[in-house]
Amino acid sequence: MDTSFASVFYEIALLVLLAAGVGFIGLLLRQPLVVAFIAVGVLAGPDALGLVSSTEFIETLSQISIAVLLFLVGLKLDVSLVRNLGKVAVATGLGQVTFTAFFGYLICLALALDPVTSLYIAIALTFSSTIIIVKLLSDKQEIGALHGKIALGFLIVQDIFVVLAMVTLSAIGVGMGEDAGGLWDVAQVFIGGAVMVGAVVVFIRYVANALLAQIARSPELMVIFAVGWAASLAALGDALGFGKELGGLLAGVSLASTEYREAISSRLASLRDFLLLFFFINLGASLQLSTLGDQIGPAIVLSLFVLIGNPLIVLAIMGFMGYRKRTGFLAGLTVAQISEFSLIFMAMGITIGHIGGEAMGLVTLVGLVTIALSVYMITWSHKLFEICEPFLGIFERRRPHREQDDTQSVDDARNVDFVIFGLGRYGCRIGSKLHDKGYRVLGIDFDPEALANWRRMGLEASYGDATDPEFVVHMDLTGVQAVVSAVPRDRGALTEADPQLALLHGLKSANYKGKVFLSVQQVAEAEDLIGKGASVVLKPFDDAADYAVRQLTEQAES
């Protein structure tokens, strides 16, 4: 017994160390950990190094990881949030899901796959990775951009579709699986599910807030409760016949309407990532490398479909709804990969007995290809748009009214004294102070919430992006005394668009002759920007520190 325990301990320690090493290589290649973890599973599997022998223990950790992952998804599905989804998010999300599922099914049939396998793969191709997209958009500081907000909106729509697909799959599995027991078994699952949903509704209404208010006194206890709650409902869901996945999801939904959901989500994120390591190791170790060679051709076809078809349908829908081609293109690139949920969905199909391991291997290959390539597509999205722009005219209306309605003030820029790009705290303070001194100020930002806040201050605002040269070039800046950029220059390790240099380039192309004030976070950047055309470089952190030192020394000497 002791020897067996020691063997498992050594094996897990070795796998975690191997994951750290492969993950570091993936980091250098700017790849998400999903790719690195699957690679670890393949390396540790029986067809490579043969390190995985404690399959039952790893399988258990894998199941816990799925419960925690779906619990965190459920935390996002607040009823009020779903109800307030914008029309573009709903239309784009449903349109992309429908397009991908329908044409993906036809492509799979054309690849000589049977109808059931084709249906599974087609549905799996509709899911995009929320974790990867949010991480990349956050690194590029584009979560607040219009295309970032729209992308997050249709990711929520996809998450809802994930829920519906898994519910449907669980119900079908009871009636069609290898251990099917007839209509009564199906009815029992629906009855059990209805009872559980009813209990969750009662919990949300009468218990959740009061209970968490007490538990939240101890952050550590809140984390333990969240994990225990997710695992318990996952186990209950499995006992009732509709799966651990939906049980974990319901656990998240039961806490989604509380004020503590963000705290729980942030505290469990690291645990989720650690546990998911074992899901992907288990997945990679189960792949039979000898049979993957036959899947390369179909994997390439389906990967191209996801990489090209998904962004195009998003671009087409958003263009039809009145968005500019640039916004549609940047939002569309976020769905150019499949998700970890695709693999979980396929694993459910294998458990039920609908599909075989070959289908899982095919989807895993598609996942590796699309995730790896889409990371670079999203990272270099602005460069890609410059290359593709001449061919994207058909996806933009003659009048993209949804964005033009928010840019009506741009034509009046000639009548203002100052134009400020970036309406965060620093930009807002500059704008309000100039307004108080009697100057007319126009604020420009790509975050609709920042624009709304600016307008509440009684100032003129316009939607726009300093990194969009087309926007800056078409501005009429006649009579403008100065253009001010309060946009942070350091936009993260994964962005290629320098907002300050892009703005200087756009102003030069527009033949603007006035003053240009640019803000920097590092003093060393000032000389570089002055040499490239900036009139004055603002150093908010240095200026604030100088003011603080003056206050401190004056108080100390008085």
UniProtKB/TrEMBL annotation:
The UniProt entry's GO CC annotations, sorted and at most eight, read: membrane
Keywords for the protein's UniProt record, in alphabetical order: Membrane, Transmembrane, Transmembrane helix, Transport
- Report the InterPro entries cross-referenced here: Cation/H_exchanger_TM, Na+/solute_symporter_sf, NAD(P)-bd_dom_sf, RCK_N
Stated membrane topology is: Multi-pass membrane protein
Subcellular location per the Swiss-Prot or TrEMBL entry: Membrane
Q: Name one GO molecular function term.
A: antiporter activity
Where the record annotates domain RCK N-terminal, the positions are 418-539
Name the Gene Ontology biological process terms: potassium ion transport; proton transmembrane transport
Specify the superkingdom.
Answer: Bacteria
| Membrane-spanning segments | 12-29, 34-54, 60-77, 89-113, 119-138, 150-174, 186-208, 220-240, 299-321, 328-353, 359-378
Q: Please list the residue ranges annotated as the Cation/H+ exchanger transmembrane domain.
A: 20-379
The text of the family note is: Belongs to the monovalent cation:proton antiporter 2 (CPA2) transporter (TC 2.A.37) family.
Protein name per UniProt: Transporter (CPA2 family)
Q: What is the lineage of its organism?
A: Bacteria, Pseudomonadati, Pseudomonadota, Alphaproteobacteria, Rhodobacterales
